[in-house]
Design a protein that fits this description.
By secondary structure, the protein is mostly beta strands. The protein has no helices and five strands.
């Protein structure tokens, strides 16, 4: 998995009916775009994320 600053992280919920977690990558701490990533989620909290199989990285929108 590779990412750059500004990409979006979508973490799918493991429970039916629970929303996914969405955040923006603030820092890439691994080499060459590898995890871990410092992410700010839409609710404002920041966390160090080691993405698993339930995670999707979406490239940032150049219009943002």
């Amino acid at each position: 998995m590779h990412a750059t600053v500004g990409d979006k992280v979508h973490i799918k919920s493991r429970n039916v009916g629970m929303p996914e977690h969405i955040g923006e990558i603030l820092q890439v701490r691994g080499q060459g775009g590898e995890p871990p990533y410092l992410v700010r989620f839409v609710d404002g909290h920041e966390s160090l994320v080691f993405p698993g199989p339930d995670c999707i990285i979406k490239p940032r929108d150049p219009a943002d």
